[in-house]
């Protein structure tokens, strides 16, 4: 199939698409959610995560509608080009006259007329993978395109910083923790010894250095996640999450639960907001997920089912955690609560498996996200017809991709804050602002050539413009609220 900037990929069923979307959304953010739930209170957390799940679902339908609109525009332009070429080959006029007519006719001839003449052809079929960056280039002005790339670059930096911190933390806890079952639930400090005179913080930085040296070189080349590696990491994820839920439920059912979370604590809301936004993030990868689905008639129902399933999963994981463990002992990375508490899990092999679970799953994603960020940097500064010098292309771009997140991870390993800030700022842009702007501009962009009778079969259920403005106002309010809270918190210190 011609015309796409990126390959569509091998087609798969709607069920496989549901599984892929679940695996994409449920990741590192889920492991930081229990502590955020405990800090905000169980009633507030339940209400907020339900509302944010609904908002994320709404903007997901916006992106799917924008993808269909982008496909329609690409088909229109291709049909327009074919008409120009046909006119060039048959017309008695000069080439200049033919091109001039070809450029002036499209705005006056609605796309609907071509739909009718084409019979069964639906221009809104999603068959070409149009990434968010390409949609931004199609529907936004230059400033909007640059703002999009800046937003996604900041988000990917935050993602890499979270990953760069999560792996060394897990390695440090496994290497430095007391796994003899005599230590109980102990919360260690960074200054506590790990090996001899080496503190836990120093051990963390050693592991960060090893992590960077092992995975950093992939940023200088192209990395691609294989299908079998994805299956393996997905299987490990399901096993680990299922184990944690069952173990926590068993302990609670025996009356041994230590958690007594408050119903509401507003001081924990800003961070919970960021964690929840981050944990529902999938909008930037929807083109890669939705386009290969072979039968898209029920893609709307597929997405809704996925969000209901994920919401239930998050609530189950977090509620079992906050009632099983004392809030003060919950780790930033929830898996670590099972490595130092033998009352919950006294099988050493399984405790090590849960402790090292983030290492295996996150390490496979780090090079891919890093290469994605590097490519976005290249796209942001790319000019038509221009090429980068070898040093800039092969050295400068990989370095500006790798150094900042590793530097952030070197100075802080507070995963809850990293996830909260990434989700609250860049996540708000990608999950709320960009989808709302894409669907709004896409509708306005195609209006002159669509004809009012044409219907986008992938149109969002929230088709009224009220919902677009509601999302934008909500996003702006959230940014103001989170920023004000950070300022007030810092002022009190």
Task: Explain what you see.
- The chain has 493 residues and is an all-alpha fold.
- It has one domain (14-79, 126-491): Hydantoin permease (Orthogonal Bundle).
- It is 69% helix and 1% strand.
- It contains 17 helices and two strands.
- The protein has helices at residues 14-25, 28-40, 42-90, 95-104, 111-117, 132-139, 142-176, 200-215, 227-253, 269-279, 286-290, 299-324, 348-381, 390-411, 415-424, 426-450, 465-492; strands at 193-195, 198-199.
- A two-stranded antiparallel ribbon has the order 1-2.
- Helix 1 packs parallel to helix 12 (299-324) and helix 7 runs antiparallel to helix 16 (426-450).
- It is globular, with a radius of gyration of 25 Å.
- The protein starts with 13 loop residues before the first helix and ends with a helix.
- The model is unreliable at 1-6 and 98-119 (pLDDT under 50).
- This is Transmembrane protein 104.
- It is found in: Membrane.
- Keywords: Glycoprotein, Membrane, Transmembrane, Transmembrane helix.
- It comes from Takifugu rubripes.
- One of its GO terms (cellular component) is membrane.
């Amino acid at each position: 199939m011609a015309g796409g900037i990126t390959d569509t990929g091998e087609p798969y069923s709607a069920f496989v698409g549901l599984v892929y979307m679940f695996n994409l959304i449920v990741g590192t953010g889920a492991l930081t959610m229990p502590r955020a739930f405990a800090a905000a209170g169980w009633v507030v957390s339940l209400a907020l995560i339900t509302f944010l799940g609904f908002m994320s679902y709404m903007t997901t339908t916006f992106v799917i509608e924008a993808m269909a609109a982008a496909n329609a525009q690409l088909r229109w332009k291709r049909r327009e080009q074919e008409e120009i070429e046909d006119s060039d080959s048959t017309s008695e006029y000069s080439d200049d006259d033919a091109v001039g007519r070809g450029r002036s006719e499209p705005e006056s001839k609605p796309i609907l007329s071509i739909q009718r003449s084409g019979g069964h052809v639906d221009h809104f079929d999603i068959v070409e993978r149009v990434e968010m960056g390409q949609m931004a280039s199609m529907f936004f002005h230059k400033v909007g395109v640059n703002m999009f790339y800046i937003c996604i670059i900041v988000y990917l930096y935050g993602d890499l910083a979270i990953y760069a911190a999560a792996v060394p933390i897990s390695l440090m806890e496994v290497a430095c923790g007391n796994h003899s079952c005599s230590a109980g639930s102990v919360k260690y400090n960074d200054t506590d010894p790990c090996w001899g005179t080496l503190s836990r913080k120093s051990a963390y930085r050693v592991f960060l250095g090893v992590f960077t040296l092992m995975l950093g070189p992939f940023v200088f080349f192209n990395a691609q996640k294989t299908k079998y590696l994805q299956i393996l990491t997905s299987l490990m994820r399901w096993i680990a999450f299922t184990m944690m839920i069952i173990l926590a439920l068993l302990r609670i059912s025996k009356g041994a639960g230590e958690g007594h979370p408050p119903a509401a604590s507003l001081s924990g809301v800003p961070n919970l907001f960021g964690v929840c936004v981050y944990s529902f993030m999938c909008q930037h990868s929807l083109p890669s997920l939705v386009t290969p689905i072979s039968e898209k008639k029920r893609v709307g129902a597929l997405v809704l089912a996925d969000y209901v399933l994920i919401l239930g999963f998050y609530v189950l994981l977090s509620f079992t955690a906050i009632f099983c463990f004392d809030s003060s002992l919950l780790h930033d990375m929830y898996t670590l609560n099972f490595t130092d508490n033998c009352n919950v899990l006294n099988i050493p092999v399984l405790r090590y498996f849960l402790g090292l679970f983030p290492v295996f799953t996150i390490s496979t994603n780090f090079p891919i996200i890093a290469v994605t960020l590097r490519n976005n940097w290249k796209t942001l500064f790319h000019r038509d017809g221009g090429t980068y010098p070898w040093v800039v292309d092969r050295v400068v771009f990989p370095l500006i991709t790798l150094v900042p997140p590793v530097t952030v991870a070197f100075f802080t390993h507070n995963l809850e804050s990293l996830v909260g800030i990434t989700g609250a700022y860049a996540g708000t842009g990608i999950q709320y602002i960009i989808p709302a702007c894409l669907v709004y501009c896409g509708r306005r962009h195609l209006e002159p050539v669509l004809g009012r009778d044409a219907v986008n079969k992938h149109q969002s259920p929230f088709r009224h413009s009220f919902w677009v403005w509601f999302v934008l106002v909500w996003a702006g309010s959230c940014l103001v609220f989170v920023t004000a809270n950070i300022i007030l918190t810092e002022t009190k210190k």
